[in-house]
Amino acid sequence: MEAKINAIPIRAIELRAIISLLVRHWPILLLGLLAAIVLLWGLGQSSLRDWDEAIYAQVAKEMIQNGDWLTQYYGNKLRFEKPPLLPWITAVLYHFLGVTEYWSRAPTAVSSILLVIITYLVGRQIYDGRTGFLAGVALLSSYEFIKRARMGTTDSMLTLFVYLAIYAYLNLRNGAQRWWYLVWVSFALAFMLKSWAALIAPAIIGLELLLDGHTTTALRSRSFWQGALLAFILAAPWHIIMCLTHGQAFLDTYLARNLFLRTTTALEGHVGGPLH
């Protein structure tokens, strides 16, 4: 009887703690719920669109079919244009939940939900909670954002990783050097997602370090170098394996075509100049 009586106050304390947590973080919960409704509802109703969305879905499907999770294939032909992070995630979903349009788009949609939340956190960090909340709502109100978020491509996920790196850097200004780990991990994931496009994150942060005059402090931080090592461990092995396995064929496509030609000319049916 005494044990039951003692359990009542403990449960009351736990309930108060949960309510306090919900009240304190209601903007994150509300934005996450709204974003989930907007971005996940009816996600698999339409057919996959041509070009990137269909390509990523097919690459993930062929990973399941041929059992090769390192070398990517599209139409049973080698594909070296992009790293495999998105196909990996999609293939895992295919393996456990089935090959459908919904699961082809789910990684991008979930990334976009997290992006709305990170937008709030960045706004709160720079200004205040109200500004961050309005920024998250504004992003979720954008037609172009919703359109991209409901497509199985890399753009939203890349933006998420860039924002994560920026958010981590903002927290670094409070002196918490451990945030360098999130900066570098975000960069590594972005690089494994879209290779050279991920360089935007270190470019932004590097410029900010110069403007703030904190470059020397960063280079003297043990967390900075440990984070860089962690990023190397995450991103380097697949690239090394591809070089050893496929040699010049991989380098010609991944470096020459994907880095230099793609940044200066329109490829694969796309139109526009270097700034498009």
Give a description of the structure.
- The mean pLDDT is 89.
- The chain is globular, with a radius of gyration of 22 Å.
- The protein contains 13 helices and two strands; from the N terminus they run αααββαααααααααα.
- The chain has a two-stranded antiparallel ribbon.
- The termini are far apart.
- The protein is 74% helix and 1% strand.
- It has 276 residues and is mostly helical.
Entry keywords:
mainly alpha, two-stranded antiparallel sheet, 13 helices, 1% strand
**Count of individual helical segments:** 13
Rg calc = 22 Å
- Quaternary structure: single chain
SS content category:
mainly alpha
Average of the residue pLDDT scores = 89
**Number of β-strand runs:** 2
Gap between N and C termini:
73 Å
**Backbone shape:** globular
Largest sheet: 2 strands, antiparallel
Beta-strand proportion = under 5%
Taking pLDDT < 50 over at least 5 consecutive residues as the criterion, the unreliable ranges are none
Strand order of the largest sheet: 1-2
Please trace the helix and strand order, writing H or E for each element: HHHEEHHHHHHHHHH
The percent of residues in helical segments reads: over 70%
